[in-house]
Amino acid sequence: MIDQYLAQRAILEALEGKLEAMRGSGELGADTIVELYFFDDLVQKHKTIFRVATVEDVALAISKVEEKSDGRFKLLSLNPSIADRDVVRVALTHEAGRPLTDISNLYWKLKYKEGSSVTNAPLDSKIFWLTPREIYSTISNAKRSFSFRPGGVQFRLLRWFSEHKGFTGSKELAQELDTTTRTIATDIAKLKRKADDAFGLDESSFIESSQGEGYRLAAAIKIKLDHGTS
Questions:
Q1: What is the DSSP string of 181-207?
Q2: Of residues 92 and 56, more confidently modeled
């Protein structure tokens, strides 16, 4: 059983990324067919979410995205991929009386209709609350969070980003937070991984990195200090 909230968020993110690329290349039409590959589009970016999955798990997540898309997406078919991949297959949970199924090479076809907007507040919720011990968000009546050392560098980084817009260089961050540039880079990488595991946010969807400019929160992310933080 996979986390359906995180799976749906990852699927929607993958679909939106494909659509944005097609829009940029002029390939996006009124009714466009989008192919969503299990291994390339989901597993490689979100190993934690999809490391244990069944066809039914992913199909349910896609159907929920379709249901909440207000007509934007319509699932057409599930197809085997003929790609010859030299990869380690995804480990799947064994169910009594049912053979193990390798879905690494499968892909789904969806039809996209331009013009409607997603009315899915839980998937788009990106307001987070910060305490000295954790960052959390309440989504679909469930608390999702990840923790860090109380008052440590990861907390101070998140507090800095919540109070400063725009990029901040690693040297400035190291100076302001009384640490080293190596620690800054290491802890930002850890924060990105934790955000992926807890909220289904890939690296660029939580903290953005730009060579020569530094780091900043992604534009859609809003972090607010919980009462009692300093």
A1: HHHHHHHHHHHHHHHHHHH---HHHHE
A2: 56
Full set of structural domains in the chain with CATH: 4-120 (no CATH), 125-225 (1.10.10.10)
Helices (H) and strands (E) in the chain, counts: 8, 9
Kindly give the pairing relationship between strand 106-113 and strand 127-130: unpaired
pLDDT digits (tens, 9 = 90+) for 154-211: 999 999 999 998 899 999 999 999 999 999 999 999 999 898 888 877 666 789 998 8
Read off the DSSP letter of residue 149: S
Quote the tokens at residue 132: 């000295």
Distance CA 85, CA 97 (A): 28
Separation CA 28–CA 46 (nearest Å): 26
Buried b / exposed e along 19-53 (16+ C-beta atoms within 10 A): beeeeeeeebeeebebebbbbbbbbebbeebbeeb
Q: What is the pLDDT of residues 8-36, one digit of tens each?
A: 888 888 888 888 888 888 887 777 899 99
Q: Tell which residue, 218, 223, 202, 224, has the closest CA to residue 10.
A: 202
Query: CA 230, CA 225: separation in Å to the nearest integer?
Result: 8
Tell me whether strands 127-130 and 222-225 are parallel, antiparallel or unpaired.
parallel
List alpha helices for 25-143, DSSP H: 47-50, 55-68, 121-124
Q: Which of 101, 2, 110 is nearest to 61 (CA)?
A: 2
